[in-house]
Specification:
Number of helices: 9
Shape: globular
Bound molecules: adenosine-5-diphosphoribose
Helix content: 25-40%
CATH class of the largest domain: Alpha Beta
Mean pLDDT: 95
CATH architecture of the largest domain: 3-Layer(aba) Sandwich
């Protein structure tokens, strides 16, 4: 088995759009319906935890009803010939359900919860407190064994992104970078591709223009399912 080139993928809500999940900033997206500061921020959790819990209950309910799409599947199939790490901003589990084996959730996972008084600096964000809630509803009064209220295992706006260092290492070592389905509006995720070396090609799959100006960028201006087919063809021609 020869050396397998390393592909670092940054995915966003657009890769799950064709599965039927809303994106955040497209028209009709989640942030058209909700103010993220009311349902996905550290202040919101302190002021109105019930509303935050309800928002993520709704996301879990939607996730239960959808399946991975061809883009998720093509990403998983890349593992046959490449060393693939998927750094996703998505909190859904569609990459894993499509078969990807190395998925790093920068912004957390909607199918997981943790006691609200853990996973801070002291805990070094250890995963030991995290439990899988599947697609179940979580409400005020659902307490962890340590007596604390369960909260979504999501990185709220205003909170640190504990896995960013690992993500930077992955992008720094990449032979190929692929960005799919993200508006590149949220840092530090949006800056990850810049850690790849100057010689590393950067492919972007997105039907819309994205705010990235870099000579290395090849923009495949298509939806994720079609764009992934084109990307896989380009890899074969490499
Ligand atoms: N295929 C590919 N890309 C698509 C598709 C599709 N079918 N449909 C939409 N897109 C693109 C949009 O053009 C846009 O560039 O997906 C991107 C979605 O952008 P956002 O809605 O901003 O989602 P994302 O970039 O993942 O948001 C990043 O912001 O609110 C936070 O934590 C949240 O992880 C999220 C982060």
């Amino acid at each position: 088995m020869g050396y397998k080139k390393r592909i670092a993928v940054l995915s966003g809500a657009g890769v799950s759009a064709e599965s039927g999940l809303s994106t955040y900033r497209d028209n009709g997206g989640l942030w058209d319906k909700y103010d993220p500061m009311d349902v996905a921020s550290d202040v919101a959790w302190k002021q109105n935890p019930g509303l935050v819990l309800e928002f993520y209950n709704r996301q879990r309910e939607k996730l239960k009803a959808v399946r991975p799409n061809e883009a998720h599947r093509l990403l998983a199939s890349l593992e046959d010939k490449y060393n693939v790490d998927i750094i996703t901003q998505n909190v859904d589990n569609l990459h894993e359900r499509a078969g990807s084996t190395r998925v790093l959730h920068l912004h957390g996972e909607v199918t997981k919860i943790r006691p609200e008084n853990t996973c801070n600096e002291a805990d070094a964000f250890s995963e030991q407190y995290v439990v899988d809630c599947g697609y179940e509803r979580v409400v005020l009064g659902d307490l962890a064994p340590n007596g604390a209220q369960y909260r979504p295992h999501i990185v709220f706006f205003g909170e640190p992104v504990p896995k960013i260092e690992k993500a930077i290492d992955i992008f720094s070592a990449a032979d190929i970078v692929l960005i799919v389905g993200t508006s590149l509006s949220v840092y530090p995720a949006a800056g990850l591709y810049r850690y790849a070396s100057g010689r590393t090609p950067v492919y972007i799959i997105d039907p819309a223009d994205v705010p990235a100006r870099d000579p290395r960028i090849v923009h495949i201006r298509k939806k994720a399912t079609e764009g992934m087919l084109e990307f896989c063809k380009m890899l074969e021609e490499e």
